[in-house]
Amino acid sequence: MTNECVFSIGTTRFNEDYTPSTNSRGTTNFANLARGENRRQNLCNAVTMMNTRVNELVHWDNPRGDRYALELDIVSVDLHLASAGDDAAFPVIEVLDVDIVDTTTGARTEGIVGNNFSSYIRDYDFSVRLPGHEATGIPSDFGDLHGQVFQRFVESDEYRERFSQPPVICISVSTSRTYRRLTNYHPILGVEYVADDKSLTDQYFGKMGLRVRYFMPQGSVAPLAFYHRGDLLNDYSFLALAGTIATMETFQKVYRPEIYNANTAASEVYQPSLDNGNYSVPQVSYDRVERTRLATTQGKFTEVNLMKPYGAVLERWATEQSA
Q1: Pairing mode, if any, of strands 90-102 and 108-119?
Q2: How far apart are CA 211 and CA 203, in angstroms?
Q3: 283-307 pLDDT, tens per residue?
Q4: Which of 170, 149, 144 is nearest to 77 (CA)?
Q5: What are the residue ranges in the chain where pLDDT is below 50?
Q6: How far is 226 from 199, CA to CA, in rounded Å?
C-alpha cells in the first residue's frame, strides 16, 4: 500500500493575466475573480490591494511605500492512485504560494505556502457528508481522512522538494465564536485575540495537524485566523508573514467585506457578523452565491469520482502512512 497513492505538484502564476485552467477548482477565490467582462481589471485591482498592503506592513526603509511586490503562484496538488490506472489523477488541494520581491535591491524572499487553501475532500465533507448527519450530529471521524491526506502531503518528498517550511493557512475568523483581545503584540501579526471556544473549522483543521492563533495586524479591522504547525511567531520572517497577511486580507475584504472591510475596527470583545451593514464595498467583484453552489457541485463530484470508487483504498493508505 505504500506506493498506492502519490502526489504531484503543478503551479500557475496568479496575476492580472491569470486564466483558470480546466482542472482548477471553481470555488477558489482566485478563480472566482478571473471571470466576467471585467476580469482583467478585477485581477489587477486585487493584486494592487495586496501590494499596497504588504508595503503598509513593511514600512521601514520604504519611504514611498512601494518597495515590495508580491509574486503569487497557484499550487495545484494531484493525487495519483495506482488502482485507478497509470494516467488517473484526482485534484485534491490548491493553495497559493507567495514570494516577496524587493524592487530596490532585486532580492527575493521566500514567503509562506498555504493561502487560499481549498480541497475537494473538504467540499465533500461539508457539502455532502455533514448535511447527511443533521439528525445524528457531527460524526466522531469527521475530517479524519482529509486530515490524514493533508498531513501525508506536507510530509511527502514532493512537498519537501518544493517548499522549505510548513504551510500557514490564514482564513476568516468564525462568526459562531466570540474573540477577546489579549495584550500580546507582534510587530507584523499585530495584537492577539483568543476565542471563547473551538469552532468546527478549528476542530477540522486540528485533524490536519494545525493549531490556530488569532491576530489583528496594524491597520486591519478584524482578526485573522492563522492555522500553523510550528512556531508561528518565530519560524517565519517578517516579510513572509507580511506577504501572507497582505494576500489573505485582500481576499477576505473581497469575500467577506462585512467583516474585513468594515468601517469600524474590532473591539476588545469581538463577535464577527455577516449582518454588519457598516462596511465599504471593494473595487473587486466576487460571486458568493456561485461559490456556495460550486462547493456543493464539487463535493458531489468528489463523492462520485473519489470517495465511492477509491475511498477504502485511500483510507487504508492514509492509515498505513500515519501508523
Answers
A1: antiparallel
A2: 9
A3: 877 666 666 677 888 889 899 999 9
A4: 149
A5: 1, 25-27
A6: 13
